[in-house]
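Onboarding guide, step 5: your first structure request.
Type a short instruction followed by the sequence, for example:

Predict the 3D structure of this protein.
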Amino acid sequence: MSIEMELDEIIERYKKQEGMLIRILQKSQELYGYLPLEVQARISEKLNMPISTVNGVVSFYSLFSQEPRGKNKISVCLGTACYVKGAQEILSAIKEELQLDVGETTLDKLFTLNATRCIGACGLAPVITINDEVYGRLTPADIPSVLYPYIKTHKKPAIPTAQLLMQICHTGYNNNEIIKLQKASGKVPAAFWCSLNFCALPVLI
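The system replies with structure tokens like these:
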């Protein structure tokens, strides 16, 4: 079943329910990951509703996004209690650590950064959330250790050096395949003399 057909099924399933537009938009965002204009236009057409109405709802509610989001959504609370306790410094630390600004997504689509109003955890100020996890009483120095588990689980396992050398020496990879192995290993390129093939091959050690 195509993704367009799945969208049509969502619209058909909820179109007669009270508050159906919000529900349809939520389910559509779960399907696509965000709500591009073409999805909004299809919803508008199927519901016989002006696209300005659909887009108005999408634009108004912060839970909806018209741009692709990262796997992990970081929300920094800038409510009064958090702001007084240093939320702006926490936000700056995250921006520096991930090299992105509010509303942006990292190039690897791992994180999206947002600033939010009070999230109702003032006793833990300053607070951030990552997906459904809450992190409170933070300092800027805490940010790398908070982000690390999410980065770690995203990384591909490195190919052990010995295994990498055996693959290259015994299989006869071409240059493009060797480069792929280098990237997969996650190590620093170095010149290595392959005594089995009597040729200089760029591998990772």
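Each response can be followed by summary notes, for example: Residues 20-32 form the longest helix (13 residues).
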